[in-house]
Amino acid sequence: MEAMTKDLWVFVETNEDGTAKNVGIELLTPGKLLAEKQGGSLVAVILGENVEKAVNMAGRHGADKIIAAEAPELRAYSTDAYTEAICKLVKKYGPTSMMIGATNNGRDLGPRVSCRLQTGLVADCTALDIDEESGNVAWTRPAFGGNLMATILCPDHRPQIGTVRPGVFKKREPVENRAEIIREEIHIDPKDIRTRILDLITYMNSENVDLEGAEIIVSGGRGVGGPEGFGPVKALADALGGTVGASRAAVDAGWISHAHQVGQTGKTVGPKLYIACGISGAIQHLAGMSGSDCVIAINKDPDAPIFDVANYGVVGDLFEVLPALTEELRKD
Ligand code: FAD
Which domain of life is it from (predicted)? Predict the structure, then answer.
């Protein structure tokens, strides 16, 4: 399919309360740069039933245009309805590329849309650029089990579609909403939707770890020495109102679940504060947390590479440093 415009689309997924999911807003940041390089507009595409809050958020975070498509069938995510809606819009407007956040729904939607449109999909990207020579989007993603980073171009397919990990990009500072808003009424035949949402139940358990959205993360590595070593890590995280992260070494040892893993084969995070405790700073760990605003490293080895990326470093035993820090914080 030929692209009719040079526009770059970001699919902005909505939450149940009609707000935009973080990743959709984050993607507007690289989207703006890439759209400018491509000579097109940055378009946020929002589907749902009541999407005003998400429209406003997208407008305030840099979208030039917003396509807001509302229909009762789009109230909650379903593969059939969302695929149908996106494909109809793509055929009508002809974007050159489209980014989708790699949430559970985004990972479902991207492949279905790309298959329906007979184009390609680059899944789970962690970096984006424009290839100067060809003008195509250069999608970078971990490959071969995370052992190398592959940059992929899709020269023959339009739109070029990719899913992008949450937490990789930072949201822009909000500005006045000047976006052109295009309202679309999408007709979706209820008969075409093969699944029906009967009820939405929010299920929270210990595995529901929102590292990507966390503003403060306290992570433990092999240096914590065992599952009980996460006690002081968690105590500090609680005192700061933060979330517990971990290195792969700690996860592989079975001390904490994979839901907490930060890094190339874990989650990509971008908190305001990242405290690395007993983590050496391997390149694969740094790949997941180097977008943090401020990094504090606590390690007893003064030569640990984590100190190269840390804003503040404490050379010492985490079992002494963490309880002392937690106690100080609890005094306030
Ligand atoms: P180590 O490297 O063993 O470091 C432990 C640190 O703790 C040391 O620096 C030591 O000085 C310090 N220490 C020990 N005791 C104390 C103490 N009492 N007080 C203070 N400091 C102490 N790793 C990830 O983290 N995330 C990933 O997603 C990831 N993906 C990978 C993908 C691939 C394909 C490969 C090959 C590797 C991947 N890794 C990943 C693994 C990575 O290469 C490292 O092995 C891992 O990050 C090391 O974890 P660590 O820093 O906790 O352990």
Answer: Bacteria
SS3 328: helix
Residue with structure tokens 């993603």? Answer: 141
Pocket of ligand 1 contains residue 288 by CB under 6 Å = yes
Cβ 131 vs Cβ 37: under 8 Å: no
Tens-place pLDDT, residues 161-206: 999 999 899 899 999 999 999 999 999 988 888 988 788 776 655 5
- Indicate if ligand 1 lies below 6 Å from the C-beta of 302: no
Distance CA 285, CA 221 (A): 10
Here the ipTM equals 0.99
Instruction: Give the strands of the sheet with 243-246, arranged side by side.
Output: 243-246, 216-220, 273-277, 294-299, 312-315
Q: Is 281 left (phi over 0), alpha (psi -120 to 50) or beta?
A: left
> Nearest 5°: CA angle at 103, between 131 and 259?
115
Band (pLDDT 50/70/90 cuts) for residue 331 is confident
How many Å lie between the centroid of ligand 1 and the Cα of residue 171? 29
- For residue 149, give the H/E element and its range: strand 148-152
What type of residue is 202?
Answer: T
Residue 23: Cβ-neighbour burial (10 angstroms; 0-12, 13-18, 19+): buried
Q: Best of 285, 296, 315, 322 to mutate for ligand 1, by most ligand atoms within 8 A of CB?
A: 285
